[in-house]
Amino acid sequence: MAEFGQAFTSQMVVSSFENDQWSTADVKPIGPFSFHPATHVLHYSSTCFEGLKAYRWVDGSIHLFRHHDNISRLRASAASLCLPVPPAELIEEAIINAVKAVTDEIPDLPGALYIRPTLIGTELNIGAAGRGSKNALLYVITSPVGDYFSGGVRPLKLLIDDENMRSTPKFGQVKTGGNYAASLGSVTSARAEYQADQVLFCPGGQVQETGAANFMILRGNDLITKKLDGSILPGITRNSILKLGADMGYQVHEIDFTVDELLNWLPDSEAFLSGTAAVLSPVGSVVYQGVGHTVGNGEVGERSMQLKQALTSIQHGKQEDRWHWTSLIA
Ligand SMILES: *Cc1c(COP(=O)(O)O)cnc(C)c1O
């Protein structure tokens, strides 16, 4: 299977907002769009997106995981970017149509169909730097993905960056292109200089998250992660893991903590990243100010893997879904 995000299914769904009206969420063969060079998004980054997955369970049925949460988050992102906010029902229809159009292209477990709803500003106006786009395009593309961990789970190395920000104190909660652009420089040099897999952004010494995943610590009976304050993405995987962790008897702490505290905790902790794409990715070491620090014994944490298992067994229909997170769609 191709690398994550580089294979696409044959169909997509498109709906446009023009003259104050959304068109129906129609299925089309996947293919290029053509845009006028003055299109708002190309100049002023009026773009936001979502990432969620559909799974084919062993009985052949197709299920979405917590898609209502992705829909709410896309609407919140759209509002932050002053874009037309698509009705929740339209986004849901677009997602479901996109999945149903490609059911025979969904890989078996542990693979999944990664779904990428995207909203962009399409008004033709290079004078609208200080104004939201009047027009918009909502589209949903899908990508068959394998188990992110095929070939074995490898503990990641994170570079702790306490100088750069991946976003701003309030815009960090928006799933918008600009935030990823802002973090590229830091991530690129972390790879080149330290062979780091990701950067853990800790502006002013306060631990936040990585470029595209939330960060968590398991230490004794404590499950620790940064509290939601607008500066980090409110991950749906993060929320699911906190609920499952509490259920498994962990004390959940959504708190602010510093790099110094983190470094003190690491020797007797497990650490991992959480997100839809990587599910739960163990962290084996961090680099701070040129010095490496091992997390626990540096190996994949056993208790982290238990949490991952608790989550994937619900996503895969192998465990009772007591929170009603999964939705049968086909
Ligand atoms: C998408 C994303 C996450 C993870 O969110 P999920 O809803 O769990 O997929 C975390 N951080 C950032 C910056 C993200 O873009």
UniProtKB/TrEMBL annotation:
Gene3D superfamilies: 3.30.470.10, D-amino Acid Aminotransferase, subunit A, domain 2. CDD domains: BCAT_beta_family. Pathway: Amino-acid biosynthesis; L-valine biosynthesis; L-valine from pyruvate: step 4/4; Amino-acid biosynthesis; L-leucine biosynthesis; L-leucine from 3-methyl-2-oxobutanoate: step 4/4; Amino-acid biosynthesis; L-isoleucine biosynthesis; L-isoleucine from 2-oxobutanoate: step 4/4. It holds the Pfam family Aminotran_4. It catalyses: L-valine + 2-oxoglutarate = 3-methyl-2-oxobutanoate + L-glutamate; L-isoleucine + 2-oxoglutarate = (S)-3-methyl-2-oxopentanoate + L-glutamate; L-leucine + 2-oxoglutarate = 4-methyl-2-oxopentanoate + L-glutamate. Its cofactor is pyridoxal 5'-phosphate. Keywords: Amino-acid biosynthesis, Aminotransferase, Branched-chain amino acid biosynthesis, Pyridoxal phosphate, Transferase. One of its GO terms (molecular function) is branched-chain-amino-acid transaminase activity. InterPro entries: Aminotrans_IV, Aminotransferase-like, B_amino_transII, BCAT-like_C, BCAT-like_N, BCAT_family. Acts on leucine, isoleucine and valine. This is Branched-chain-amino-acid aminotransferase. Belongs to the class-IV pyridoxal-phosphate-dependent aminotransferase family. It comes from the Bacteria. Its EC number is 2.6.1.42. It comes from Marinicella sediminis.
